[in-house]
Amino acid sequence: MAYTKHWSSNEKLNKTELAKLEKDGLKIYEDIPHYAKNGFSSIPKDQWDLFKWAGLYLQKPKEAGYFMMRVNVPSGILTKEQANILAGIAKDYGRGIFDITTRQAIQFHWLTIEEIPDIFTRLESVGLSSAGACGDITRNIVGNPIAGIDPDELFDTRDIVKEVYEYFQFNEEFSNLPRKYKMSISTNLQNAANAEINCVSFTPAEKNIDGAVKQGFHLKVGGGLSAKPFLAETVDVFVEKEQVLQVAIAVTTIFRDYGYRDKRHRARLKFLIADWGVEKFKEKLEEYTGVLPSKGVEPVKKWNAGYFYGVHDQKQSGLKFIGFNVPVGRLTADEVFELIRISDQYGQGEIRTCNSQNLILPHIPEEHVESLLAEPIFNRITVNPNSFIGHSVSCTGIQFCNLALVETKERMRQIAEELDRRLTVDVPVRMHMIGCPNSCGQRQIADIGLQGVMIRNKNKEMEEAYEVYVGGTLESGGEFNKKLKGKVPANFLTDTLEHLLHFFKKEKIAGENFYTF
Ligand code: SF4
């Protein structure tokens, strides 16, 4: 099904919309076996975009025929078997690169069309999928990476995330949304799922109903980054646990049927919410769900930006979860195999991914923590990273991304490691680097956001440079960072950041961070 048309006859559909009406994105699954048999040259150019619905993008340069694949990891939770399959794909097909994204997913590079059917079979064998990981469809559902083991979570959200994720997977009722659509479901009290930057978020809430305190969710809608970022706003409703799927379907139906399809750059849910306001949105929502109770109270304490470094108590007595740094989210396949071995030997084999591009090994008995931490792999994937590399995030950038203007991942890593050699600050400084305004690396919520641009130098040659933004946060409802004047050529970026950080260090009071500075 396409969508219910709520358009007046003089409203025009954009080119992508017309193409989607010709052929639904998920139909690419029917064509992939044919293309795999006949090679990349058998894929008509006008079909390239449809691969997104299968979680596949052509990497840079497109004509070379290599794909990037994004695999959904709902709430960032991977079993031993799932992690093994992913590491195997990275090793056998992806030249050993295993990237953790800012939405808890996993990305591979260098895949050829011939390899895709076997990769799908492997993913399917352990209940994983790349369907909807890209495209105008419900993306990976982000959640609490410590769901089920979090001593502070309001309640375990694993089954709810699974139910909602599985409902939208391969669901042709919702495979033609106006644009990408991002959901988070979490009851982590430190907002580990970055609720305010999702299109729709279910956040922890309690409400007294008929004399009994019920645990459930508040609903936020209309967040999102890219060139015109918005923070999600809270709708005045309380959603009980059992109602999450119904409400998720209602919100998605509204987006599908009322979201803008004329101009692609205004097609995200955030633009509809900005125009309607949350009051009108609530009225529409209740046409689908019936009347919902008004808001309760929010127990969210603060924002941890998805960082869990160190050894922590699980809610299960005697067990620990341990948060490790993965520099700019990139692992090798061999490292992942080693992490699985360690997680299996000391715990239950599970690996969890965070929005900060880092990972967690859960279920480690207290008495095994010391010997686990002595394993050589944790010299690089460290539990207690240096501050700058430990708080650096980067998008894919020009190495693989067709939209990138500049290099990001390797540059961010080198800059962060150099800054760690040059200075220390008494608070973490979260730096996010992105290669274009699409903001996959979530530049807007960073203490220091670095956005790639091209500039013309004195010799009239084009060169890579960065805009610098400061003071982003999702603390207290959130605030996006602000742009500083000028653009910094890539060669001067480390020195410029060092100056900025020395200034910050000199002027700040103890404990003050970039947001409060
Ligand atoms: Fe590519 Fe831009 Fe996203 Fe970076 S932010 S991965 S450059 S689209």
TrEMBL record:
Signal peptide: none annotated. Residues 135-290, 393-517 form the Nitrite/sulphite reductase 4Fe-4S domain. Residues 62-125, 312-375 form the Nitrite/Sulfite reductase ferredoxin-like domain. Keywords: 4Fe-4S, Heme, Iron, Iron-sulfur, Metal-binding, Oxidoreductase. InterPro entries: NIR_SIR_4Fe-4S, NiRdtase/SiRdtase_haem-b_fer, Nit/Sulf_reduc_fer-like_dom_sf, NO2/SO3_Rdtase_4Fe4S_dom, NO2/SO3_Rdtase_4Fe4S_sf, NO2/SO3_Rdtase_FeS/sirohaem_BS. It holds the Pfam family NIR_SIR_ferr. Gene3D superfamilies: 3.90.480.20, Sulfite Reductase Hemoprotein, domain 1. PANTHER family: FERREDOXIN--NITRITE REDUCTASE, CHLOROPLASTIC (PTHR32439). Belongs to the nitrite and sulfite reductase 4Fe-4S domain family. This is Nitrite/sulfite reductase. It comes from Cytobacillus stercorigallinarum.
